């Protein structure tokens, strides 16, 4: 089995989970708080999609590990020597729970060499973003490339909002700082789609201060394969376990990082 095979399996699973989400989107949902946090929702749809993907992965690739948002335990350590599927069954849960139609399914396969394949599926548009390491990125089969915009003042910059008060204030300061330097600002509510929209060239910059591996595992590969630059929010090197991310078309990256750094320093002030 090779990466073509893994990508095709991941695409099928993302579509199946997406169909399930689409059905549940129109139905009565049970919405709960994670750890009692009003800013952290989970729905029956998150659990149903998580289970669907896990069951299919275990059946198809019993020799691989599976790491999903809804089965995550803080004490868990990923052994990257074992090929590991990293899953966010529903990225954009808050949008989903409020009926805001922007959400996605994210599935990626990583190993010691890094990301091998990634798919992000947006069921309401039937958009499947996909990438293979070294094989480029596509949207519904068409090759993707980041924008050619070299000027920040003509760029669209997006971010999503952390849950912790300090990080939320920092994101707001950064947003405020970008406000008069860019064409406009957006906040879409699915980090995986933030990466994919940079890959597609419809956003020029995306940043987020507080992501988890399942939010980024697929989107980061898709963005990079489409020519994006991915760093931490300060413009320094990024790994899948780095919470802060700055992704751009590359051309406006240094300027964007400078704006972040003006109001958010490495020691968190
Ligand atoms: P989720 O929908 O799977 O929770 C918007 O906030 C985006 O950031 C969503 O993609 C959300 O993922 C993700 N996210 C991940 N961790 C977050 C955090 N600690 N606070 C806020 N959003 C987070
Ligand atoms: Ca999620």
Structure description:
This protein is of the alpha+beta class and 269 residues long. 35% of the residues lie in helices and 26% in strands. It is built from 8 helices and 14 strands. The chain has helices spanning 3-25, 44-60, 93-98, 165-179, 191-200, 213-216, 219-225, 253-263, and strands at residues 31-34, 37-43, 65-68, 84-91, 104-111, 114-122, 127-132, 137-139, 142-143, 156-159, 184-186, 205-208, 229-231, 245-248. The chain has a 7-stranded mixed β-sheet with strand order 3-4-5-6-7-8-9, sandwiched between helices. Helix 1 runs antiparallel to helix 2 (44-60). The longest helix is centred in the N-terminal third of the chain and has 23 residues, at 3-25. The chain binds adenosine-2'-monophosphate and calcium ion (CA). Residues 88, 91-93, 160-163, 189-191, 208, 210-212, 215 line the site of adenosine-2'-monophosphate.
What compounds are bound to the protein? adenosine-2'-monophosphate, calcium ion
Distance from first to last alpha carbon: 48 Å
What is the tally of helical segments?
8
Which spans have pLDDT < 50 for at least 5 consecutive residues? none
Largest sheet: 7 strands, mixed
| Sheet with most strands: strand arrangement | 3-4-5-6-7-8-9
Q: What would the principal axes of the Cα set say about the shape?
A: globular
Q: Using DSSP, what is the number of strands?
A: 14
Mean pLDDT over all positions: 95
Instruction: Write the element-wise H/E pattern from the N-terminal end onward.
Output: HEEHEEHEEEEEEHEHEHHEEH
Helix content: 25-40%
Proportion of strand residues: 25-35%
